[in-house]
Structures are given as structure tokens and as C-alpha cells.
Amino acid sequence: MESYDGQKLTDSWRIALIALLFGLALLYLAHALYTVQVVQSSAFSSDQARQSIRRVQVPGARGRILDRKGVCLAENRASYCIAFYVEELRKRGKWLNTINAVNENVDKLASVLGIPRELSYTSISNHVIKSLPMPLIAWKDVDAVTLARWAERAEQFPGVDIYVQPERYYPEKSLAFHLLGYVRRDRPPQSRPGEKSHFYLPEMYGREGLEGKYNAWLTGQLGEQLIRVDARGYKYNVWDGEPAVPGRDLQLTLDASLQRVLEKTLSEKRGAGVVIDPRNGEILAMASAPTFNPNEFIPMIRDGLWKRLTEDDEYPLLNRAIQGRYAPGSIFKPVTAFAAFSQTNFNPNAIHHCTGTFELGTMRLRCWDTYGHQDIALRRAIEQSCNSYFCNLGYQTGPAALISQAKTLGFGQKTGIDLPGESSGLLPDSEWKVERLGEKWRPGDTCQMAIGQGLLLATPLQMAVLAATIANGGKVYKPHLVKKDNPPEPLRSMNWSEEALTVIKGGMRDVVLQGTGRRVQLCGTQVSGKTGTAEIDIKGVRHKNTWFLAYAPSDAPTVALVILVEDGESGGKTVAPLARQVLVSIFGESTNEPPTHVEALSETGGD
Amino acid sequence: MFKKNGLLARFRLFNPLMLMSMLCLIFIGILYIYSSCSVREDADLQQLYLRHAWAAVLGLLLYFTVAFINYKKILKWSWFIYAVVLILLILVPFIGDSQMGAKRWLFGIQPSEPAKLGVVMILAWVYSQRNVQRGMGLFFLTVLLVGIPGFLILLQPDLGTAMVLVPTVFMMLFASNVAPKLLWGSTLAGLMVAGLIMGTVYFTETVTMPKERKESLIRMTCLRDHQIKRLQVFMFPDKDLHGSGYNRRQSEIAVGSGGAWGKGYLKGEHYMLGYLPPSVSSNDFIFAVLAEEAGFAGTVIVLLLFLFMTWTGLWVAFRCRDDGGRILCVGVVTVMFSHIFINIAMTIGLMPITGLPLPFISYGRTFMLTMMVGLGLVQSVSMYGREEETRFS
Fold it and tell me: Mean pLDDT, chain B, as a whole number?
């Protein structure tokens, strides 16, 4: 065909073919629509009920925390909530209409269930603005009776359903509270990239302790499902979105039964205790008193409770074992002894004459034995905890060697335990003193430090590391609470001579056999130890922090421990019996009574 | 009775059916835009239907203006229109506004919409040149003329609009029988590339392989992340229900729940409940709203109206005695039809989601004005394309 001006014209059959093609394509669409809208329609809509899509979160269970034997210290339990799906109650027009409708429904449901209303109007409108697609939880943790009541009348309340939320649960109550920490529900910090935060309900986040430190390890990953429901709440089918991934369990080095014993010995007191395996730095028990039941923090901390806890004079939230800073007192003396051995001219058998006081210039230090220990050498000075001897020893050794020995042992630094909030204590030196106090370092400061007094401060954990280091013959391990796959390597090795170890460890054995720590004696197991009583001034009032440091069995130690009691009488009298209880629970003994010959010994066991 | 070449004689050739069906569709569009935007919070957004209506009034003015100008005169200016559109497209990346991650807007219009018409017009003009050889040279010229704006649109990125150019150009090349061997050869090649991309995406999803290899394979397709995601959703509808799969699943339920007779006007629930994202319910997914409220009966009526428009447009081409007019009509009708088909097919999950509006019904003023000017051109072809008949009758 040609156009009117003689050109060859586009073929008409091609246009007709295009028309046919387009017609067929539309027919195909019509057929597809017929399939969806007529044939399959019943799958998408039922006569009596309107359908809706519900977005359901599948929580990834938070990992459990287990002790070294598999005893569960933290797990999850199901908490049944009654939740509103606000999108299904959507009213036409402004969102205000919907908010009001939900508000009325909450009231109605409250009267039907016979429970007081917990949800405020503001929280409904906040939910609509911020997290519309998520269930709005009206009642948390409802009991079985309420659930049954709801189930009877579920049909009257479209868009309301039971929502199961996992809650953290500590089956051992307050056991190891300071180590475990606690969790709080919170909105995810900044939601994962590419996702909208309002698709997520607040999740559990670990706060403090192991829950905080190992939060990423314990946290599971939320899964999501879309469910088609009708007005009766009948669930048609589920499209799996993301599957939930449970968190991983955390295996601790802690021994729950030992922990219980240690906590029991400290109950009704203020103090701390650490039991450590000197062979690898595993913490077997770590307690701080007073303590608190973390279950009360869940799902949220009530205002009054938090106030009470933070304003409590006894600071129950403080983990004294790693956060408390105390003068170590006499249990520091072995450090002074090791420092002395590092000097070439030191003779452990040299005799010092103790008159009951030690004088240096204008300074006078009392020995606990007012009559003096008379002529005394190192091994017996440890046994008797003679202040006079150690002041002199410190003075002879000099501050440099003493401070460097203490530093290598880890004083003044964090031990690196896998718990947040650890304190580094305080190891003063002359620069520190000049800078902070504006005073020169005096020989008296060295003497004070030699007996663990003065400016020196240490955490009970640091002392436990010291106990472990002495016990294993000079290897400093990093203390840890989470079980490691491979046996850990020591952080450092102390350069201690055989002679030093023999004399000092011998002295510590004598402490238990015949010295200040006789109350810790066990039948069948040899125990070595050192008592300590640090005197401190708090606002003009004299306080005594009493310590006991021990390891056992003496020849091949498998356990080292340190216990501190605030405001005790003396290390030997107050703490040694507690240490004994702990050791008994580990090594066992035919009778719980101390050996009779200890009673026969006089009550002189001082310091 | 009439003056032979006078206005009234022309008016006799005006195709009223095409105008009527267009008005019907616009009316349906206003109704359902009202329905979908009436639940919006924002008072401004509740007025979308009014803005649509005013755009329609302006569009009708343009429609009649274009219709009563001889399309041949307009075609002579097509190179100028093409150049203007091209300049606008070039300006978009520099001074355009971004919306939802794509830079498509310039002075309140989307230059990519008139670009479709610009391409159709310049091709119609080039093909209808006297003594033009319909061989390889013309084929490559076509590729160049379409490729430049197509590439600029792809950069925005607007894959949907760029994709519409493909069937349009194909139909125009096919109708004017330009280099048929080359056309079929390249069509085959294009289908193979598409198949390869789909195959790659399918392969990476079904076969387990290390992440790096999967990523390098995906990168070979040269598609953007969200485009890959849409393809994945198309092939595996349940893969990403909360992200890309969400719209698709929701619109399918909205369409399906409409049933044979629909839930009734303003009684739809899915979009009202907010399951269909309000941001898409009045434009790209308006068909879902319509299908839910008007049911199969309503969708069939709309399909029939579209069929009617398509066929009358092609009938005008059929009756036209001028090559330029014929090709112009084929181009305009194909642009319109591609939108119709792709939009409806993606709404019911037959095609991957591409953001394309439904002609006359979706909210989107630039596109509606473009479509109405295009149909005005077809109307002009109807009136001025039959010189021979008027001369010898």
C-alpha cells in the first residue's frame, strides 16, 4: 500500500498484528485476574471475617549462663502478655479515632478480665506513632486465670491476641548476682542497616556483669513471621520471614555449689571473697555482700527499688570483689618478702629484734603484739605477722624494689577479668604522691606499704591473684569467669628463687599450723595462708578490714582464696573460720568442727 | 456541506470514542485516588484526587490544542522537543530533586515522562523522511536516539521508565520494518541477556556457594541492589516479606480479597489498614485498591476500557495514509500499553516490581499530561492523517 503522496506505507498487517498481540496480552491479564479474584478469592477472603496480616516477632532465645558443671544460673521463661494489634483496629480518618478506639477497647477488656488497666492513653498514642506494626502490649505476665477468661471472649475482641515474650530468669535467685549482672528491655540501639526500627519491640540487653560483657554472645537474633488472621484470631497460614536464631550459652568456670557456700559465709556481713584455681586463673567462686535478687529487675526496675538500692549505705549493687578498694594489710607482707629476696644482700635468717613498736625518725608503728616478738627472722615473722620486722624489711629493701615487685604482681592495674567495671586499686609511688598529695615520698611510706597499709589499695580480686601466684610458684594468670577452650598461658612469670618460695611458703604454712591463722586448719588437707587486718580511718572512726588469704593443698595447690570482711575483729578471728568453711566444702572433712588442738591453743592469734 | 479542509470537516474525523474512554478512565482514577488518599493523615495528601483532577483539566486543554494542530507540523519540530527533553534529563542529576532514593524531578516535573513521547516523536519523524533507507543505518540511528535518553533515565535510576522504551522502540521498528534481520537478531540477543540475568539470580539463590562468589556473580549482572532484590522476590515470593516482598504480597492479597464483585467503593480494608504502604497506594499500586473495592467486575471494565483505547489508537494508525502518522500512533499506543501491562502484571505478581504508573488512573501528574498529549497526537493523526480521502472523496 502506498501513502497518498506515493511513499511506500507501513504495512497495515503489522498494525493489525500489534493490535492482536495487545489484545491477547490484555486477555492474559484478565485471565490472571480471574484466577486471583474469582478462583482463588476464597483463600484471600472469607465471608464472615475480614482478614489481616499480622507481623509476629519470633524471639531468638537469649543464651543460658551455666556454671562449670552445667548448673543453670540464668535462663529464660515464657511470659504471657495480652497484646493489641493496632493496625487491625484502624478506623477511617485521623489516627486519633483509632487511638480512641483502642483506648476504649483496653477499658472494655480490663473490665471483662477483671484486672486493672496498665496501659495509659499516652503510651497508646506513642505506640501508634513509633511502632505501629508491632503488638501493643496491654498486660504483661498475666496468670492462667486471666488467660482463660480472655480465651472465652476472644471473639469479641478482634485485633487482640496473646503474645509470648521470653523473660530472663535467674533460678538461683541472688546467687552470683554481682557476676551475672542483669538484663533490661530496651529498644535496639540503631536498628540493623536497611531495616526500620519500628518493626522491633524492645529487646533484652545485658546490663552489668557477664550479661553485659557477653551480651553479643548471649543475644539471639529475632526472627519474624507474617501471619494471616481473621477476626476470630484464626491463623490461616504463615509465611516464614527470617527464622529466629537462639543466642549461645555461656559456660562459666564458676562452681555454683562453692559459690553458694562462699555467699553463705558472707551473709549478714559486708565483704567479698574470691576463690580461684591457681593453675589457670579460673574463678571458682566470687562473692560480694550484701547482695540482691536480680529477678526483681525484670522486666524492669521499679523506680522505688532502684532508688533504694543506689542510696543504700551498704551499696548492694557494688561488686566489692572487683570494685572495692581496700588496704590489704598484712596479707601484703609476702610481697614485701619477695621484694626483699630480689635484693642480692638479703639474708632471710637475719634476726630483727621486735620490741612491740617500730620507730623511724618521728614515725612510730605498733606491732600487734604489744610486748613484742623479740628476736625474729623472716619465716617466723610471716607466721606471727610481725609488723616491726616487715617495716624494717621494707625500709631495708627500699621503695623501688618493693613497688616494682608489687607492680609485676598486678597491683595498681586491672587484672583483666572478663567483668565490666573493674577497679585498678592504687599502687602509689613517689611521683604519684608528689602529683596528687603534693608531698615527698618518705621512708615511712615505704614502711607503711611494706605492711600493706598507708596509701596502698587493692581489690579482693587482686589479692586473690596474688594468692594464686604464690600458690603456683610465681605464674600470674589472668583471672577469668568464662571457660576457655585451651588451657590459658600465664600473663607473666615472677622471678622468684627456690629459696624465697621455700621460706615464704613455709612461713605461710606455719601461719596455719601455729601462727595467726590456726582457725583454718583442716583434717586431711594442708592449708597455707596469711591473715590480715587493715586499720583505716573513715571520718575519724577507726575501722578494721579483716582479710584471709589461703591456698591448699600446701604442696600442690589447686585452690587459692581471699576473703575480706569489712569491720571485722581480726583476720585470724573473723575471716579464718569463714575461709575454713569454704575449704571444707571443697576438700571435705569428717567433722565440721575445727581440730580440738586449735581450741587448746590460746586466743592470742591476733592480727 | 463543510468546507473541505476546514475545521469543521476536521472535526468530523475527530474520534470521540477515544476521548470518551480516556475521560472514563480519568474519572475512575479520580474516584480511586480519592478512596486511597482519604485515609491519609496529612490534609495535603488527602487532596491528591483534586490535584489529579486539575491536572486532568489542564491535560484536556493540551489534548485539544495538540489534536487540532496538524501532527505533521508538530513532527517537524520533534528534533527541538527531543533536544529540550534531553537537556532537561541532563540537568536532572545536577539540579534535580530526590524522592525516595532517586533523582527524577526537575521544577516539579519528571523529565523522564515527556522523554518517552520525545523519543516516539523523533523516531516517527526520522522514519517518515522521504527516501530514508530502512536498513542498518536507520537501525543504529534509532538505537542512538533511544539510547541517550534511556541511559540518562537509567542513571536516575528509573529502570521501569527505561524499560518501557524497549517494547516501544521494538514495535516502532517492527511496524516500519526497519532492518528486520537485525531487529530479530538483537531481540533474540536481548532475550538471552535477560534470561542470563534471571538465570544468574536464580542460580545464586538456589545453589549454595561462598558469599564472595555469589557477590561477584551478582555484580556481573550490572544491576543495582534493589533491582536484584526485586528479581529475587519475583522468583522467590516469600524470600523477603518485610522488605521487597511486602508490597507484592500485600497487593496480591488486596486484589484477591476483592473477589468477583469487590468490597464496595471506599470499603477496601487492606490499604486502609495500612498494609499497602500509603506512599504507593495512590500511584503505582492504585490497581490493587481498585481491584479490592471493585472486584473482578471492576478490573474487567478497566481492562476493557484500556483495550478499547489501545485498539482505537491502532485503528487510527490503520486508517492513516501517512507513514509518520502511522508510526507515531504505534509508538504512543505502545508506550501506553506497556504501562498498562507492566503495572497490572506487577500488581498481581506476574512481573517483578518496577515503579510504573497505570495510565490515567495512577496519581502522577507529569505522566498523565504526557499521556494526554500523546493521545492528542493520535487524535491529530485521526484528523489530519487522511489527506487522500478528503482530497478525493
Answer: 83
